[in-house]
Amino acid sequence: MRFRLLLLCLPVLLGACSKTNPGVQLDLIGASGLTSGNRTASPSDTLLTRVYAVGNNDSLRRLRIVVNYEPGLTPIAYPTPLSSFDPKNAPEAQEIVYLDSLIKPAYKSSPPYPGGEYLFNNTFAARTTSGTERWQYTVTDKQDESASRAYRITVRQTDSAQVYHRFTALLRPVPGNRLRADSLRAVRRVYLNLRTGLLLPKFAVLSRVPQASSQALVDLIALSADGNSVSLSSPNDTRVLNLSNARWPTRRTTVLKSTTLSDTDFNNAASAGTFVAAFAGGTDFPNGANTGSLSKNEVIAFQVKGGGNDVYTGLLLVTNIVLGTSPTVTCTVKVQKVP
Question: 331 with 316: CB under 8 angstroms?
Answer without folding.
Answer: yes
